[in-house]
Amino acid sequence: MASPALEIKDLQAWYGESHVLHGVDMVVQPGEVVTLLGRNGAGRTTTLRAIMGLTGTRKGSIRVNGHETIGLPTYKIAHYGIGYCPEERGIFASLSAEENLLLPPPLKGSEPGMSVQEIYAMFPNLAERRASQGTRLSGGEQQMLAVARILRTGARLLLLDEISEGLAPVIVQALARMITTLRAKGYTIVMVEQNFRFAAPLADRFYVMEHGRIVERFGAAELQAKMPVLNELLGV
Q: Considering the entire predicted model, what is its pTM?
């Protein structure tokens, strides 16, 4: 049986003296889309950052495709085929869209990433704006570029932080189609989302965080039955 794409056990994390994650446990199987729900400050983004080694002290276990990574630096964690798309996107203003796309090198030891042609077929807006500076792209185009840049590296496990935030409905719909397409191609996706309507139809399973802990976990088939709990926890 294949190893989980991501397996977290008793993950604790600190920023300086602040203890922000308190024993997080979660498992993501290959090809799944899993959504982390919770109010602002619940620890969802910190969980993604901790997976990538971008917090302070970490304790517990984080296994990526069967490899223990809790003691590794970020660049070594990435080489196990994991890509992080942070909320701030990280687009370089002085570079064109295509230069931004080509900037990160392929991950060593990972499967070949998507070609530029495949990416432009998935994101036709980026093909049209390939020569435009990063600052001249719309928020939606920058978000597409941030995800596309990861796909080119060969990462197959994607950590997506609030990719729909502040975007027009037409762009949000395009991002939903992108996630559906990537899942069909076998990608594994962990999303942090405040936009419940965006996340609900896309995810196979849900984890709900509160005060740095997982307080609920359930599959898509249980979503309707869990709505009263979600209303209480999230105000959805």
A: 0.94
